C-alpha cells in the first residue's frame, strides 16, 4: 500500500502549465529523490502536495485518505515539510526552534523535550542548543530546520496515518561531512517506515542515497526508477544539457563527473 499517492496532479499559473499529469505512488520506508534542471517543477510539486501552491486538478492521498479531507492537525502530526528557504527572524534558541515542531502533538512537555533533544543530537547540533537561531551560520540554521521537521514526525505512535517527510534541497548550505551525515540520517529515518520525498541537485548524493529517482523536465515526470537505471549519461544530458561520465564505481557507490568543457551552449 502506498503511503503517499498522487493522481493526475496539474498546476497552472496564469494559464501557463507548471505541472502536467503527475502520477506517483510512494511506499513507506523508501527514499525518493526528485532531480531536474532549474524550473523543471520540482519545488512546485512539493508545494502542490500540501497546497502551498494551488492545484489546477488532481488528488493527493495520505495512506487511503484524501489529503484535502484530513484535518490540518492530523496532517501536521504525519507530514513534515522542509521548504527551500526557512525564514525565522525571532531570537529563539535552537531548542525553542526545534520545539516548535511539537506544537501539533499532545505528548506532554517531558516527552517533547526528550524528542527535541534526540533530534538535536541526531543533527550534531547539541553544542548549539542554547544559542540564538538568528546568530547561526547558514549551514547551522539548515541543520536546525532539519532537526525541527524530523522532530515533528519523530514517532509513529503520534499518528494513525503514514509518516511522510518532504525535503526541498536539504543539503543546501551543508559542508561535505554534514551532507553525508544527513543522507545517512534520512536513510535511517526511512528505515523506521517513513516515506521521504526530496528535491536534490547533487546527482551523486541522489544516486547513492535514494531508493528511487524521479526525473522531471518542463513540469513532467520523464523517468522514474532505481537510481542507476534512471541516471544514465544520456538522461542527464537531456535534463541538464551537461555531459557526464561515470567517474568511479566502488562497491555499490557510483560517482558522476562532468566532462571537461561539457556545457552545451544554446540549448537551454
Automatic annotation (TrEMBL):
<keyword id="KW-0378">Hydrolase</keyword>
<comment type="function">
    <text>Part of the ABC transporter complex HmuTUV involved in hemin import. Responsible for energy coupling to the transport system.</text>
</comment>
<keyword id="KW-0547">Nucleotide-binding</keyword>
<dbReference type="GO" id="GO:0016887">
    <property type="term" value="F:ATP hydrolysis activity"/>
</dbReference>
<protein>
    <submittedName>
        <fullName>Hemin import ATP-binding protein HmuV</fullName>
        <ecNumber>3.6.3.-</ecNumber>
    </submittedName>
</protein>
<keyword id="KW-0067">ATP-binding</keyword>
<dbReference type="InterPro" id="IPR017871">
    <property type="entry name" value="ABC_transporter-like_CS"/>
</dbReference>
<dbReference type="InterPro" id="IPR027417">
    <property type="entry name" value="P-loop_NTPase"/>
</dbReference>
<dbReference type="Pfam" id="PF00005">
    <property type="entry name" value="ABC_tran"/>
</dbReference>
<keyword id="KW-0813">Transport</keyword>
<feature type="domain" description="ABC transporter">
    <location>
        <begin position="4"/>
        <end position="243"/>
    </location>
</feature>
<comment type="similarity">
    <text>Belongs to the ABC transporter superfamily.</text>
</comment>
<dbReference type="InterPro" id="IPR003593">
    <property type="entry name" value="AAA+_ATPase"/>
</dbReference>
<dbReference type="InterPro" id="IPR003439">
    <property type="entry name" value="ABC_transporter-like_ATP-bd"/>
</dbReference>
<dbReference type="GO" id="GO:0005524">
    <property type="term" value="F:ATP binding"/>
</dbReference>
<keyword id="KW-1278">Translocase</keyword>
